[in-house]
Give the backbone structure.
Amino acid sequence: MNDYIQTFFLAALQGLTEFLPISSSGHLELLPRIAGWGAPGLPLVVAAHLGTLLAVLVYFRADFAAITADWLRSLGRGPATPHSRLGWSLLIATLITALAGALGAGFIERALRAPLPVALATLIFGALLGLADWRGRKTRGTEELGKLRLREAVLLGCAQALALAPGVSRAGVTISAGLALGLTREAASRFSFLLAMPAIALAGAWQLRQLLRADANPQWGELAFAALVSALIAFATIRWFLAFVRRHSLLWFALYRVLLGAVLLAVFL
């Protein structure tokens, strides 16, 4: 029973923090230490990530279908549409992230997964989120997502690549980049969530490969429970967050991240 209680809290934390700009890795470093648990194993991490992928796919199923259909038509010289152009932007940004992951995976594992770099990244990129929210023009709405230029897609891909370092927060850094490009909070968040689909899928595939190579013997019932909890919490989080950013500033999230980074520094130092 204790295993399921730990699984519930860790999976719920992953589902909650994956799509909020507050760093899921920072929280997953802190909770086990506070609770006196061991670090979550790779099978649980894979299951929780698959749950968040399911949540974002279900929430944006209509967008995903339209983007995919129009992008495939564009390959056959079909007419360019906002959805097909958005599909190309997402592909470009994803390829940049994948390339960075392939080239930098070893360095990230060796140098950036220690508690201190996670704490520093949580603090620094939290401050950058606050700066982007404060200084961003926020004049380009969701309709502008289909009009992103090549250099903007490249910039957003580079921003997401930074989130390969634990503590940076994939949602936080991509939303910050979107705000810096003049997108509204809702538009930047929407692009971040759409970009999460291939990003989480690639990360999940990589983790699954590691899991299979490790010849682990996972508890399938516990992992299914983790995926379900993570999916339900992530779906509710996406829905709430998109409603929140239509009316409120992200400065509260930035402040929270700076405080969390300071707490992590205090704990790990």
